[in-house]
Each structure stands twice: as structure tokens, then as C-alpha cells.
Amino acid sequence: MKPIITALFFLLPVFSPVEAQQEAVPSSGCMEACLQLASGFGSFAYFPGNRNLTVWDEKQQEAQSACRVQPTTTEDVSTILHILLDASCRFAVKGGGHARDPDDSVSVGGVTIDMQKMRSIEVSADRSNVKLGSGHVLHSMYVGLENYNLTTLGGRVADVGLGGFALGGGFSALSPMYGLAMDNIFEYELVLPNATVRTINDQTHPDLYFALRGGMNNFGIVTHFTMRAVPQGQMHGGSRIYSVDQREDILEQAYQLTTTWKNDTAMAFYYRFEYDQKADDFIFGMNQEYADPISNPPPFREVNEIPFESSTLRIDWPSNFSVEGILPSGGRNLFATVTYYPSADLDRKMQDILMEEIQPIKNIPGFTPSLVIQPLYEAAIRANSERGGSAAGIEADGPLTGTLISTVY
Ligand SMILES: *[C@@H]1O[C@H](CO)[C@@H](O)[C@H](O)[C@H]1NC(C)=O
Ligand SMILES: *[C@@H]1O[C@H](CO)[C@@H](O)[C@H](O)[C@H]1NC(C)=O
Ligand SMILES: *[C@@H]1O[C@H](CO)[C@@H](O)[C@H](O)[C@H]1NC(C)=O
Ligand SMILES: *[C@@H]1O[C@H](CO)[C@@H](O)[C@H](O)[C@H]1NC(C)=O
Ligand SMILES: *[C@@H]1O[C@H](CO)[C@@H](O)[C@H](O)[C@H]1NC(C)=O
Question: Given ligand 4 and candidates 255, 262, 264, which is best to mutate, with the most ligand atoms within 8 Å of its CB?
């Protein structure tokens, strides 16, 4: 208990309501910028405050912007940035709006640049790459590409924005084959901090190109990503829910899938260990992905012998699997991650700690802590180094395990 009290003591001044309110009062510069944006962009693309804005995390939902504007072209983004620079007005860029903290995608007292009208898809003549507007969410991107029987290195959750996903790294069902999303971006269309538009690739701007792959979101505003496209039809996917009694088998199988089965690059998986408040118990959910339309693919045969509570395993389109990954909005979310060499013992130990530590706080309404455990495959690490490495600085030979500690309350 002691560490928690200490942490709260330090956090209190930061989150005090007085401070938050002061921050939310728009500056005169932002009021001026909003007036200009209103006249320049009109009522279909300009919204005072947060009117008609819904985002995933409640902390962001509560943040109040001076106004929100929806560009439709890269030139619009440049114009908006000019206005904001001239007015010295703060801003945030919203792709999917799936980030967790105020100012990540909803500006506190400034202008929210909402990219949702920029969802173009241009497939190259040879079908090897696709230029995507950065306002896509993963679902709109999958659906758009499935019309061409193609896909790209997308993630598991339909309402996550392509922008944040691809700039941060991007774990994908196809990562064992091609690496992370950031390893498969050939070109960025970027509005620089001085509002100038540039095309960034490893020939035009090698340093910026390196920084944009895994260096997150402060190098400018990306308006288009040109990414690898790969043929895709329906695939094997879905998940099974297990009672906590199956823990030893799950731990063992997760370890085997990460290490022994690394040779089968059509396979990807992750599993979660989650507290179910209604049942006052923990459950496991294991998600299977196989790039081909094969039921019960070889790597999952042993896993599929484990008795389960419920299952959504099936052959379907990536877009439909991504819908299954949606977590309802309205919660306040905290994330933290840790990466280590695969170890069933360490996974078990972390689960034990979670079970023990939540006891004093487990009755907080809506409280849903979980550990989401997934491999960073050896082939994905290799793909990264073959592309000259990245700003994410992943340096390891073997597969790694990445664990996300996620808490909703
Ligand atoms: C905003 O929401 C209101 C109420 O739901 C709706 O009537 C209006 O059409 C929406 N406006 C826009 C621009 O989406
Ligand atoms: C996609 O694949 C299906 C099934 O093979 C085929 O009928 C359809 O014509 C393909 N569409 C495109 C755009 O290639
Ligand atoms: C904007 O920044 C880029 C990169 O530093 C520079 O090349 C360009 O001249 C700048 N443009 C203006 C208008 O200052
Ligand atoms: C991959 O490894 C598994 C487990 O060792 C083995 O059963 C399988 O035959 C291997 N597959 C290929 C394609 O090498
Ligand atoms: C996705 O699922 C819906 C039903 O939930 C179905 O109507 C639709 O055809 C599916 N989409 C594809 C591309 O298979």
C-alpha cells in the first residue's frame, strides 16, 4: 500500500481540478485561430469545442478544445498549421483518437486537427504498395484494401488510427513475415513544423525517414503513408476464452509458439490474462492469427486441445477480426509495457503479482486490469534490421516477449 500512497501524493498537484481548468481556457491566439479556421473551412469542417467528437478514452473525451477542424488535403493541413503558428496556438492531431491522455489527440484549450476526412487509398499499378491517407482507422483501411484482395501491416483493433499505430511501431498479424508496420513504410508525406510539405523517403531525407520509423509523432504531421501491400483473402483467426485452471497449459503453449514455431511466419498470436470483476476471477483469452484460410493450422493444434469456455475461431476477413478487437469507449485507460526474452516463468510471476496487487482496489467500478502478452518474432526483428534498423532501437537476436499492462477504470 505504501508505494501507492506515495505515488498519489506526487500526482495530486498535477491533476488538481483548478490546474486543469486553467489549462482549458483557450488563449486569445487560439480564439483568433478558431475564427480564421471557421471562415476558411466552413461549418462542415469546423466545430467549436468538442461538438460531435467521440474518442475512446474518457480522459481525452473530457478534454475541451477551443475548436476542431477537419482537413481534406495535405494543403489544408499546411494552411491550418500556418494559421496556428501565426497565432501561437497549441494543437493536437487526431487520427483514430485512440490515445489515452489529454493533448495526445484532443487538444486541451487549443485546436484539434481531426484527420478523419483523409482516408484515401491508392494502390500502385504493380499492387506492391499503397498510399494511404493518415486519417484511416484500421477498419477503414482493411475494408478499402480487401476490395483489391490486398492488405498491409495493420493491427488488431478496428478503431485504432493508422497514424498513431504506424508511427509508434505497429504489431501486426503479418509481422512474423514482414516486420512491424514501421518497417514497411516506404514513404511519408509530411507537413514540417514550419508548414512546408515534404515527401520523405530514404533517398530524399534519410535522417527524417529513420526518425519517423518508431520515433513517434513529433517530427511533423504525416498526411499520407506509402506502405507495403500484400495479397490477402480470408484468413484463420479469432480467439478462445479459458478459465484460469488452464494456466499451465497456456503458459507452455505461448512459450512454444514464440520459440519453437518461429519458423512458421504465417502464424501470429497473443494472449491476455484479465480480471473479470463480475466473476471476481481471472480469465485467459488467446487470439490466433494465420495468414491463410486453413482451419486448425499446425502451430495451433496443441493449443486447440486445451478445454475452453468459448471460441470465435473461424475463417474470415482481417477487417472483421479487427472489429472483434474493439474495446468499448468510456473507460479511463493506463498502459505500460515491458519487453524481455521469452520465459514462461516470468509470465507466470507477473500474473501472480497482478492477482495479488489488485486485491485492495478490485471493487473500483469498471476496474479491468490485464496483461496482454505477445511475441516480437525473430523474423520481425530481422526484417527491422534489414531495413536499416529504426528509431525504436530494437537490438536482439532471438524472439522477445512484449507485455502490455493495461488497466481500465
Ligand atoms: C452533430 O450532432 C448533432 C446531434 O447528434 C446532429 O444533429 C448534427 O447533424 C451533427 N453535426 C455534424 C456536422 O455531424
Ligand atoms: C478478389 O478475389 C476474388 C476471389 O478470388 C475474385 O472473385 C475477385 O475478382 C478479386 N477481386 C479483385 C479486385 O481482384
Ligand atoms: C521549412 O523547413 C525546411 C526544413 O528545415 C526548410 O528547408 C524550408 O526552407 C523551411 N521553409 C520555410 C518557408 O521556412
Ligand atoms: C516448424 O517447427 C515445427 C516444430 O518444431 C515443426 O513441426 C514444423 O515441421 C516446422 N515447419 C517448417 C515449415 O519447417
Ligand atoms: C463481416 O461480417 C459481417 C457480419 O458481421 C458480414 O456481413 C460481412 O460479410 C463480413 N465481411 C466480410 C468482408 O466478410
Answer: 264
Atom 3 (ligand 4): residue with closest C-alpha?
261
Q: Is 148 in the pocket of ligand 2 (CB under 6 A)?
A: yes
* Domain assignment of residue 15, yes or no: no
List the domain range (segments joined by +) for residue 135: 121-231
- AA letter at 84: L
Can you give the pLDDT at residue 387? Answer: 84
Looking from the CA of residue 299, the nearest atom of ligand 4 is 3
Q: pLDDT tens digit string along 107-136?
A: 999 999 999 999 999 999 999 999 999 999
Residue having the nearest C-alpha atom to atom 10 of ligand 5: 320
- Contact 264 CB / ligand 4 (< 6 Å): yes
Instruction: Please give the pLDDT value at position 4.
Output: 35
* Judgement on whether residues 67 and 216 belong to the same structural domain of the protein: no
Of 199, 231, 263, which residue sits at a domain end?
Answer: 231
Q: Would 20 be classed as within a structural domain? A: no
pLDDT at 344 exceeding the cut of 60:
yes
Distance 51 CA to ligand 1 centre (A): 8
Q: Which atom of ligand 5 is nearest to the CA of 146?
A: 13
Q: What would the mean pLDDT of 70-93 be, rounded to a whole number?
A: 98
In terms of DSSP H, where are the helices of 199-301? 206-212, 247-259
Residue identified by cell 505515488 is 7
Number of domains in the chain: 3
146 Cα: distance to centroid of ligand 2 (angstroms): 9
C-alpha to C-alpha distance for 105 and 318, rounded to whole angstroms = 26
The atom number, within ligand 2, closest to the CA of 149 reads: 1
Cα–Cα dist 152/175, whole Å:
10
Specify whether the CB–CB gap between 71 and 29 falls below 8 A. no
pLDDT at 8 over 70: no
* Mean pLDDT (whole number) for 2-12: 33
- Cα separation, 318 vs 158, whole angstroms: 10
Task: List, chain by chain if needed, residues with CB within 6 Å of any ligand 3 atom.
Answer: 192, 194, 196
Is residue 299 situated within a structural domain? yes
